[in-house]
Amino acid sequence: MRELKPGLWHWQAPHPEWTEGEEWPRVVSSYALDDGERLLLFDPLAVPDEIIALASAREPVIVLTAPWHERDAERLVERLGAPVYTEAPDSAEDIVRKFKVGPERAGDGSPDVRWLKDGKGEAHWYTPGDTLPFGIEAFGLPGHNDAILWVESARAVVCGDSLADWGDGLRPWGLLLRMGCVSEEELADSLRPVLDKPVELVLPAHGEPAGRAALERALA
Which of 56, 90, 157, 179 is the most core-located residue (most Cβ within 10 A)? Predict the structure, then answer.
């Protein structure tokens, strides 16, 4: 774990669901921000003990950039009683519409954060264009379920899969892009307004923290 600036930490851990042959690296990133009142945990996995200890003196909040980034969220809800802010997972109708599959393939919708939808935890659903109660703005394609988040207090952008760095620099990615459902330009266009913010840090779930220049290159 390392402190990127006072009250902002980054750490990495191997993803437990990673399998050989995945196109994304096994090690993923998580972040924590102490804003003086809340301890915000972004896409948390294997949270260090020091961060867990700090949660006792703050109001812990879990923020997911995508519902499939739930990682250790369920266990942390049980342990800390933290509310969860996330985009909603795809319904069966969403899957049929987005991926052009039949209802039999869609089943009863995405299994992501099913426990949260079933009432096991305090859920707060957001979509691109929303501002969360603690000064975080969400950017991205509506219905993409994969946001980048402008965190004003840290002057940082937290990225899910929409922007990722596999070792060759930050670039647009994401499930809908990989499956050809949207173009790279469409995805970049939806994220480009974040460049109007005074971004100093970019915090990807996949990759190392970077500076504003990396964001500008990715969205050029």
Answer: 157
- Distance between CA atoms of 135 and 153, rounded to whole angstroms? 8
Alpha-carbon distance of 9 to 185, in angstroms, equals 32
Distance CA(202)–CA(180), nearest Å, equals 26
Q: Which residues of the chain have pLDDT under 50?
A: none
Q: Going by DSSP bridges, is the β-strand pair 8-14/27-34 parallel, antiparallel, or unpaired?
A: antiparallel
3-state secondary structure of 93: helix
Note the pLDDT tens digit of each residue in 6-41.
999 999 999 988 888 777 789 999 999 999 999 999
What does DSSP assign to residue 142? Answer: T
The domain 2-219: what is its CATH number? 3.60.15.10
Evaluate if pTM is beyond 0.90: yes
91 DSSP assignment? P
Nearest to 162 by CA among 202, 118, 212: 202
Task: For residue 209, give the nearest of 6, 52, 12, 7 by alpha carbon.
Answer: 12
Tell me the CB-side half-sphere exposure of residue 10, using CA atoms within 13 A.
18
Quote the CA–CA distance of 60 and 41 in Å, as a whole number: 7
Q: What is the crossing angle of helices 184-191 and 212-219, to 10°?
A: 140
